[in-house]
Amino acid sequence: MKRLLGSRFLQAILVLVVTFVIFRFGIQPPAPWSVVTLYMAIVLLSVLVWVSADSDSWRAFLAPIRATLVEERRRPLLYALLGLLPLGVGYYAYLQAAPRTEAPVELRVIHPAPPSSITFRGKTLDIQGLENPLRKDAATLEQHVREGGTIYVRNCVYCHGDNLDGQGHFAHGFSPPPANLADPGTIAMLQESYVFWRIAKGGPGLPKESTPWNSAMPAWEDRLSEEEIWKVVLYLYAATGQEPRRWEHAGGPGPAVASGGGRPPGRTLPGPAAAEAQQAGDVALGRRVYERKCAYCHGLEGKGDGPAAELLHPKPRDFTRGLYKIRSTPSGQVPTDRDLFEVITRGMPGTSMPAWPMLHERERWALVAYMKTLSDRFQGEPPKPVAFPKQIPVSEASIARGKEMYEAIECNKCHGDAGRADGPSAPELEDDWGHPIKPANLTQPWTFRGGPRREDIVRRLATGLMGTPMPTFGETVQDYKEYKKGESEEKQDPKVWAEWKDANLWDLANYVRSLGPERPNWATFLVVRGVEGEIPLDPTAEFWERQPAANIPLVGQVIQDPREFAPTVAQVSVRAVYTSEEVAFHLAWDDPTPSKPDPAKKVFADAVAIQLPVKLEPTERPYFLMGDGARPVYLLTWRSDGGVGEANVTGLGKLTPQRGEAVQARGQVAYADGRYRLVIKRPLETGDANDFAFPAREFFPVAFFAWDGSSGEQGSKGSISSWYYIRVEAPPSRRQFVIPPLVVLLAVVAEVLAVRWARRQGAGSR
Amino acid sequence: MRTRALIAVSLIGLLALLLFGLEPRAGAQGGGTVVGEVKYQGTPPAPGMLKVTKDTEVCGKEKTSSELVVGPDKGIQWAVVSVTGAKGSPPKPAKKPALDQKGCEFHPHVLLVPAGAEVDILNSDGVLHNIHTFSTANAPFNKSQPKFKKVIEAKFDKPEIVKVKCDVHGWMGGWVVVMDHPWHAVTDAKGAFKLENVPAGKHKVEVWHETLGKVAKEVEVKAGAETRVAFELGKK
Fold first, then answer.
1. Are A471 and B142 inside 8 Å of each other by CB?
2. What are the helix (H) ranges across A466-620?
3. How many domains in chain B?
4. Looking at the domain assignment, is residue A143 inside a domain?
5. pLDDT at A4
6. Residue of B nearest to A323 (CA)
7. Alpha carbon distance A181, B21 (integer Å)
8. Which of A346, A523, A580, B194 has the fewest beta carbons under 10 Å from its own?
């Protein structure tokens, strides 16, 4: 053992292995591979320097290698190495030659150095050394924090979220993701004037080193005043419990001011939750948490009228009526404490109600206790959950029964024949407060308010969603069984009843879940496949089914006025192919109403657009939101009232459609069951300098837009995406099967040469 | 079968007992009658027309709104007239009240129900309806009623004017008026009403209409006599 450790060679190997393990697994969060590779290269160099420090050391290091190459008794090891090394190298070559499945890595500076001064609405502000003027007066601080919160929930919350964790309900649509302000690596490391600068100038104001220009952060100086931005900055620090970095003043420490009125979330109550908290939530504590966290949307009195409410859809719930959607109790009853606790903990998917797991368990139980004081419907006997039907596992027979129930009880009246929320009653639905409300799109279970699991669906069917048009169906399904029993007796076909006697709501839930996946499976990049022959223009052609689809999330355009807070189109499914002559995109998206434009009724055309840069530059891309004057974008468009077109744009609302012969794109659309399908194709080469020249290189950026005209969307009001990379897949090639064998062969030749050289050396030295 | 028949017979017997045995005879105690009309003040608007966009084979292509029905003599139908603050046990109905959904309308548009009574909600249409109540004193509910579900039972315990809606057919609106005393009535197509056996004395008589709101008047009722009272309601 001692001899083994004394070996220079093994020492070197040991150092390499240990450092690799530390770099790979010892750093949290894990360091990227590129960083690990860099570090390992440095370590390898140092080890080589160390072992070759003097000639004795170098000889000691080489001895085992030479011995393996030369000595008779080490032959088995030599042969094993001779076999394994080329195989390893060949596998690496195969990985490199195989088509890549990731977008290229982009390096950019996240916290660029701030400019020393900025021009804010014509006024020069010195960022260096600038302090938040609102911190001077401690008496008004709390008031300013509250006002900052109101501005925050009406402007910032969609992306940065109620918890300031960058998890707002539109956050998934942006790449890079919105900043997590609660992370100690963000605002806690910055001076307040830096944060002011980032808010005022946004993504468009980032300096050169932060290119490519991907940040969706708007330049808020267009909408917020200087004082309003300072208030928001106060709120950011108060709500996250962070302290801003201070400028180091020559004349001693700056004004000593505590950070705002709010306490950090989740840190109010250290220590384990009391087990009995379920029954005895602390109303006073609940009220404090409510006023800090819930009142911005649900209002101080719980009427659902907080400052954020008017911009949210669906509307925040009015707690004073005691009508709750997500319950385990029968229609007409209030929810159990556990029901309320679960909704606070899990949030309501598809709405702006986030999950609040960061609140301490006792705080959540306290909130439950406080919420129950907001409506007198909670007085009286505690509610009892409905009996839960016996679970039926997923099977074809169960799904078939569920489909029959779906049709018999006419779920399609609201949810549509294919579940895409396009039923005839869907457009006129209202909640109990008279606000318009949309039925769930059953093909997108991740937006189900009470959760996508089968048991969640069974519960919603059994108890209904109070305050909404969704009724209970528990008894109804029992009645349908009776009906099937009658049918069975009438037809004297006992098989029917045998099939139905154990049927229950689980069948319907199994069917509903068969309409869509639990998770959205959103793409991170797209592929345009090389194909041969004619590309079909018909979007329903079987050809398109065979192409892989990438689901791209779309979110409301909340950056420039007028904004869209409740977009209809939440994702677009994209397929793309090209031949030696043309390129084609196949888009599919859900829209419950095919719109016929009627401006008098505020109904506009349905539309989509595919955005591409006009010119590809090495690092910089146009502004993701329709480009700007310096870097315009090129659009392939479709409108329900004008068909397919091409356009050039220099910013939102600054669109110049191409006309006449310049338009070489063609397309065809099909609409059925709440879903549009569209093919747009164009010659590869158009000879037009205003068009995107395709395909310019392996990766190029692409973005998507959609408008639902019947909900008043047009112009800047609509759904948008970030830039995505699209990869041009070469026509089928054998590259990955040709190159690796060649590499293996070369490696073997190199080995043989090395062995012969070592032997000759060995012979010479003897 | 036999038990059911037995239960039915005893129920009928019980009902008869209640109707003829226990019901206080208000007339015998010296009550009077209040009769009158509810009329529209000013020029009534043209009846609202609703375009039907679904289930047209059952619902028809067009509907006349029942929200405000004004007769040729400006009489307002579906107004509820009641003696407010009156104390008395609710009358026992001769037959179980029923709210029918027929031709995608509620029949009757306004249903009077004594507090504590059960109501049959019928689906005569053979398409999906849902019964969505907007009550606050009674527990609100929202139940589906597909074509094969002919009857749903509902119970209203507390006095309240309850809006009933079918979300599937957005135009379908109706009212269940729950009263804990016998002195109330719904106006007919001419706007006429009749309250019988009202105890003698001074009373406040109130009219409620779903779109026109409330109006009240002092009325003196004399035993064995008929008191006439006229109401006028208009858009405010």
1. yes
2. 474-490, 494-500, 505-514, 542-545
3. 1
4. yes
5. 63
6. B140
7. 76
8. A580
* Mean pLDDT for all residues in chain B: 86
Q: Which of residues 695-754 of A touch B (CB under 8 A)?
A: none
Six-digit token string for A173: 């649509």
Domain match, A330 and A402 both: no
Question: Is residue B220 one of the residues assigned to a domain?
Answer: yes
Cβ contact, residue pair A476, B146, below 8 Å: yes
A714: domain range?
Answer: 525-728
Q: Is residue B7 part of a domain?
A: no
Residue A491 lies in a domain: yes
CA separation, residue B200 to residues A162, B24, B29, B194, B226 (Å): 63, 15, 9, 15, 11
- What span, in angstroms and rounded, lies between the C-alpha atoms of A360 and A267? 8
Same domain flag for A455 and A366: no
Q: How far is A492 from chain B (nearest CA, A)?
A: 20
A102 vs B166 pLDDT, higher one: B166
Q: What is the pLDDT of residues A621-679, one digit of tens each?
A: 888 999 988 899 999 999 999 899 999 999 998 999 999 888 999 999 999 999 999 99
A185 and A221 together in one domain: yes
- List residues of chain B with CB under 8 Å from any CB of chain A: 53-55, 127-128, 130-132, 134, 136, 139-149, 167-170
Would residue A106 count as lying in a domain?
no
Q: Is residue A383 part of a domain?
A: no
Domain ranges, residue B215? 28-233
The pLDDT tens digits for A323-378 are 999 999 998 899 999 999 999 999 999 999 999 998 999 999 999 999 999 999 99
Structure token pair of residue A726: 């699209």
Is B169 in Cβ contact with A425 (below 8 Å)? yes
Interface ipTM above 0.90: no
Contact A333 B131 (CB under 8 A): no
Residue A483 CA to residue A80 CA, distance in Å, equals 74
Give the Cα separation of A748 and A87 in Å (integer): 9
